[in-house]
Fold these 2 entries.
Entry 1:
Amino acid sequence: MDEYERWTGDADLVREFEQETRAALRWIDGYADLQGNGYIAYRRRNEETGLENQCWKDSWDSISYRDGRLPGFPRATCELQGYAYDAKMRGARLARRFWNDTAYADDLEQQATELKTRFNRDFWIEDGQYFALALDADGAQVDALSSNIGHLLWSGIVDADKAPAIAEHLLGPRLFSGWGVRTLAEGEARYNPIGYHVGTVWPFDNSFIAWGLRRYGYKAEAARIAAGLLDAADFYAGRLPEAFGGYERTQTKYPVQYPTACSPQAWSTGAPLLFLRTMLGLDPFGEHLIVDPALPVGIGRIELLDIPGRWGRMDAFGRGRVEVDGGTHLGPQLGDHTPASPGQQRSSA
């Protein structure tokens, strides 16, 4: 709802669905916090046939410790906490600007701030410098390194001083194959480059990760991920599948097909659109659309014309200036990257 209004300026719809939006926010605390510890967790209702995992990685073995053990239930995966943080921050904006409820907005912001503080304490694995995949039923860290940490950048829940380490992991050799970020890092006990959520590359997952990197100022790193996935699309007649193998790019020279991947798949259909937004740096800010391109050199030039929104219609242009090398792991060029809130991407020449 918040994102829709930021692009369209349709305040009437925000007011029309105020009660439904409030109900969605209440669900986070009233239903999703199964243990009363302030974290969203899940367990299946039907113990015989229900899916064991209720996050987007819903296969039975997708959530594991580094040594391959599977945690008990309920499970609180890291990215769900980021989604909750994002929802509370966006809800606060809607409450303050459109529902005339400053007290509720202040309360949501306070909840989000407290969640962010607790999350960066409880999920952070100090010796590995990354966030745990989940907390188990006892509150212990499920310590596998996974692509989920990229969703945390997307949500904004990551403390700024931890972002460089996360970016380095995402573009490092254990997670980044050259074609994209693997769902599970190479070297983890359950890693399998052709396993559904334990080593494959998912285009939609990577599009979230790329925008998350962009949000924290890592424009070149986001461009590398976009370039890898778009290169992979050439081997699928321009249509990205649900997932493909996580094999190292220098070993295969082509993305290895996942045997039962859906194609077409709606998530993967949306991924190039978010990559396009990421590479051009498109972000609504008040009545304006910010354009801050960071395109891979191989793309050449992109022109996106007549972009509709609260600004009327606008054109966006970008030239490929970011050097990328999908076959080698150079690591991100970590410098002074400042995270931006939604609607506050910084522009460059």
Entry 2:
Amino acid sequence: MKYNILMLDLSSQHAKIKTEIDAAIHEVIASSAFIKGEQVYAFENELANYLGVKHVIGCGNGTDALQISLMALGLKKGDEIIVPAYAYAAAIEVVLLLGLIPIMVDVDPNTFNINTDLIEDKITNKTKAIIPVDLFGQSANMEEILRIANQYNLFVVEDNAQSLGAVYTFANGEKKRTGCMGNIGTTSFFPSKNLGCMGDGGAIFTNNDELAKKIRMIANHGQERQYVHDVIGTNSRLDSLQAAILRVKLKYLNEYEMKRNQIADFYDSYFKNNTSITIPYRDKKSSHVFHQYTIQLSENINRDEVKLRLQNIGIASMVYYPIQLWKQKAYSHIKQNRDADFPTSNMIRNTVLSLPIHTEMNVEIQTNICVNLINIIEALQLENGSN
């Protein structure tokens, strides 16, 4: 049987809120305030209230958010920045663009977030910041990261592009949203994110008034007042149309999170007794917003063949991230990194598989995914057994 099951169904999600989205767009068009309009400032305030953070500054995208954040910290060329070895390239990319040195640290085999047990060994007198990346929907071990940062006087720039809305619980019971625990938090509103716009967009969070002021200046050509440039800046703005769309979708973010957790629960219950599949680990310190539902297949299962056979029957799946960062051509000049330094990242890239998860999925779609995945795995096991 041939299916048409996508990783994401934004069209169906949009159809449910089309009337609200259309009204928001028309309001911006009627105002003609396309740049720095009231919709932008309203969205920043509403997101700040949702997150429980003092300042939200919109910008052009999540990568800009990381770059502007590092620029605001007054770092110098040659300073070292600790980043996870298993993540998207954005963090290491902006570190290198600014003349800084990325120091990669292997990740935790359960959460896939940076392994806090390995960070201190990588700290030198040149280390200035840590960029934890909250992968697939749950927080990194922020309590330990903040302890290390405090001990060594380091900045923390938290990338919560995949975990917006997740809640981290400290040992004393205090709860905070991801992105709001370090000196600065950054996020992306790329359309596939849990809170996604209809184009590019990003934001920066901080509770520090001086940092917020500097971030706003940097994002606006380094100027606080027009034609007065006090610092080197860039041009990175969240436009009014995207802000208006995000204001509508923000109202539904908790609902979207609940739906994603229901889907994850269904997957968990279907796969939990299958010895060839490891379901996503759920850290007790963090809620999970399931930006991705990522399983691990046993090492004796050909993950790429599983993905291909799913594709052949019309079921999408994804592999994040198949090529190690330290083997990417663009970063090959970074000499301190070897395969032996990152055993967990090496293992993960060969075994992980992300399954479709989105707010419009129903039980029938999920059942078809689960049944066919199991059948493919069993078929491969039989084929291998016959060789």
